[in-house]
Write a structure and sequence with these properties.
Layout: H1 2-23, H2 32-45, H3 48-55, H4 59-71, H5 83-95, H6 101-125
Helix pairs in contact: 2-3, 4-5
Length: 126
């Protein structure tokens, strides 16, 4: 009886190993880089309402912001992250923060500093 059980156990193990080797997928089931590119492509090139819903700006304003940050602000593309992805990530983060008095103060200070820097650069260029 034990010989029969041992034989059946060995056959099941061999069949299991063969099945694992030949039929189970070995690579990751999701290509995260491709998924990220598709999601960002839907934001940039998709419907206007999707861009407004996700980033709280229109597609035209988003492209203008990317251009300004690149040309005037010195924002540069890296090997792994595009300018649009950097800006989209930033906008997504700041629009999804829970509003508190501390956040409002930070946001207003940041915007005012950016405006003053922009004015100073404009006065320098004139």
């Amino acid at each position: 009886m034990t010989i029969i059980l041992s034989t059946i156990t060995c056959i099941i193990a061999i069949v299991g190993a063969w099945y694992n080797e030949n039929y189970l997928v070995k690579e990751p089931s999701c290509d995260w880089d491709e998924e990220r590119r598709c999601r960002l492509n839907r934001l940039y090139n998709g419907k206007e309402v999707d861009c407004i819903e996700q980033l709280r700006v229109s597609k035209k304003a988003f492209q203008s912001l990317c251009t300004i940050l690149h040309e005037n602000g010195g924002l540069a593309q890296t090997r792994n992250v595009s300018i649009e992805e950097s800006v989209a990530t930033f906008l997504n983060r700041i629009t999804s923060v829970q509003v508190t008095d501390q956040w409002t103060t930070f946001r207003d200070t940041l915007v005012m500093q950016m405006f003053l820097d922009y004015q100073a650069r404009g006065a320098t260029n004139s």
